């Protein structure tokens, strides 16, 4: 009986210890456990698999994925983190920058600003293409100059009152259409996701004049285009000597809780659906490779 309970635990639970995790490997394959029929069955999988949406908000989605193998759940997680494409600033052309922010730092800050643009509307830019076209590039301009406010009170010391345009925000970035983009996207509102991202601070006479090219990319290659973030698990109980030997932490092996938080470029439900499409495409390419291998 004890042996059967041990087998059930290994098959159904992942046990978390103070210094490691047990039962992480999938072991329910045919013939591994006497008395268990672990042969793959399509109907049994369809009956046991489900997705339960727990919470859905504008920029967050939480759902349970039940009845799936750890390898598939982890592949889905990795795709969400690194392979769902987005649009991000790739090149910055600096025409004038007299602020205290160096050109390379300014370009880096601009590259991290999330851009509200649906990547499904664009193609990947060809390698080596420096100019870009209307189907693979979004162009933004940031042109701003600080000046004194002639209406400011003489005794004032508040920079917000003394100066005009002394803080450069992401809202100052404007979309400059390329080619026939106005016809391709007549209702488009391409802009930064957040208007209040501080880019630089200026003083009278200082100005910034840059042009930015946004292209389609994935987080696996460039970190700035990543959408989702963070995966955690609490082991707080092991910090307390009076509790760590009394509490057993385990998780159902085939039950996974996904909490997807978007940067605002795409809604979280779209991120999930795009990740599913990418995973399906990977599986199809794998099957095609298997079919192309000559049989001996």
Automatic annotation (TrEMBL):
Looking at the record's lineage, which domain of life comes first?
Eukaryota
Q: What is its main location?
A: nucleus
Biological process per Gene Ontology, one example term? DNA-templated transcription
Keyword list (alphabetical) reads: DNA-directed RNA polymerase, Nucleus, Transcription
Q: Pfam families of this UniProt entry?
A: RNA_pol_A_bac, RNA_pol_L
Question: InterPro entries, from UniProt?
Answer: DNA-dir_RNA_pol_30-40kDasu_CS, DNA-dir_RNA_pol_insert, DNA-dir_RNA_pol_RpoA/D/Rpb3, RBP11-like, RNAPI/III_AC40, RNApol_insert_sf, Rpo3/RPB3_RNA_Pol_subunit
Molecular function as annotated in GO? DNA binding; DNA-directed RNA polymerase activity; protein dimerization activity
Q: Kindly give the CDD domains that the UniProt entry links to this protein.
A: RNAP_I_II_AC40 (cd07032)
Ranges for domain DNA-directed RNA polymerase RpoA/D/Rpb3-type: 60-289
Q: Which GO terms describe its cellular component?
A: RNA polymerase I complex; RNA polymerase III complex
Q: Where, per UniProt, does this protein localize?
A: Nucleus
Similarity annotation = Belongs to the archaeal Rpo3/eukaryotic RPB3 RNA polymerase subunit family.
- Kindly provide the name given to this protein in its UniProt entry: DNA-directed RNA polymerases I and III subunit RPAC1
Phylogenetic placement of the source organism: Eukaryota, Metazoa, Chordata, Craniata, Vertebrata
């Amino acid at each position: 009986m004890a042996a059967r309970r041990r087998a059930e635990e290994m098959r159904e639970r992942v046990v978390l210890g103070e210094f490691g995790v047990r039962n992480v490997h999938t072991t329910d394959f045919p013939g591994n456990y006497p008395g268990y029929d672990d042969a793959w069955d399509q109907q049994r999988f369809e009956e046991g698999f489900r997705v339960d949406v727990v919470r859905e908000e504008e920029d967050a989605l939480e759902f349970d994925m039940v009845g799936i193998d750890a390898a598939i759940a982890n592949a889905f997680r990795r795709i969400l983190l690194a392979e769902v494409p987005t649009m991000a600033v790739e090149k910055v052309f600096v025409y004038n920058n007299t602020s205290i922010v160096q050109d390379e730092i300014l370009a880096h800050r601009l590259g991290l600003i999330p851009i509200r643009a649906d990547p499904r509307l664009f193609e990947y830019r060809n390698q080596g293409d420096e100019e870009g076209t209307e189907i693979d590039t979004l162009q933004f301009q940031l042109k701003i100059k600080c000046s004194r406010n002639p209406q400011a009170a003489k005794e004032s010391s508040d920079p917000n009152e003394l100066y005009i345009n002394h803080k450069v925000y992401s809202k100052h970035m404007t979309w400059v259409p390329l080619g026939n983009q106005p016809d391709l996207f007549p209702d488009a509102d391409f802009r930064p996701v957040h208007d209040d991202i501080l880019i630089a601070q200026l003083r009278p006479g200082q100005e910034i004049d840059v042009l930015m090219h946004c292209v389609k990319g994935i987080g696996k290659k460039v970190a700035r285009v990543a959408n989702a973030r963070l995966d955690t698990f609490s082991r707080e109980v092991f910090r307390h000597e009076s509790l760590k030997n009394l509490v057993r932490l385990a998780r159902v092996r085939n039950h996974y809780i996904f909490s997807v938080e978007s940067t605002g470029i795409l809604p979280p439900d779209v991120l999930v659906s795009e990740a599913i499409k990418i995973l399906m495409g990977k599986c199809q390419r794998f099957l095609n490779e298997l079919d192309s291998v000559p049989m001996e």
